[in-house]
Amino acid sequence: MSKKLVAYFSASGVTAKAAKNLAEAAGADLFEIKPEVPYTQADLDWHDKNSRSSVEMRDSKSRPQIAAGDAKVADYDVIFVGFPIWWYVAPTIINTFLESYDFAGKTIILFATSGGSGFGKAVEGLKDSVADSTVIREGKLLNGNPSVAELKDWVESL
């Protein structure tokens, strides 16, 4: 039986709730990917082309710093990585997280929350941030607060 981790970034709390339910459903440990400088509501205003999130997402090389923390990735075989979908991809802080640890030989299963878009090019945008031997799989959109039982069924189907 593989040891699992649910690592997530949540700007507004929606992804955090989904991640906690997923960790319970998967019998996984939980790790929050926290930005060194937390995002404000103004930072997240995607209507404002000068907001922090808009500026970061226009620059694929942007790597927002993450707060100190140790996800102990080496201890896990399967890592669920969750985030809100921004501009049809993962926020660049997810690239920062992936580039901060050695995921060689690991399986990463993505999950996301979204106001209406799908995964888009999320997998493609993350592949260069991990070793070639890392498997990244598009997982599931966890919108609408899925129950622990529903998530357990999904995890068991993987």
From TrEMBL:
Transmembrane segments: none annotated. Pfam families: Flavodoxin_4. Residues 3-157 form the Flavodoxin-like domain. One of its GO terms (molecular function) is FMN binding. NCBIfam families: PRK07116.1 (NF005501). This is Flavodoxin. It comes from Selenomonas ruminantium. The lineage of its organism: Bacteria, Bacillati, Bacillota, Negativicutes, Selenomonadales.
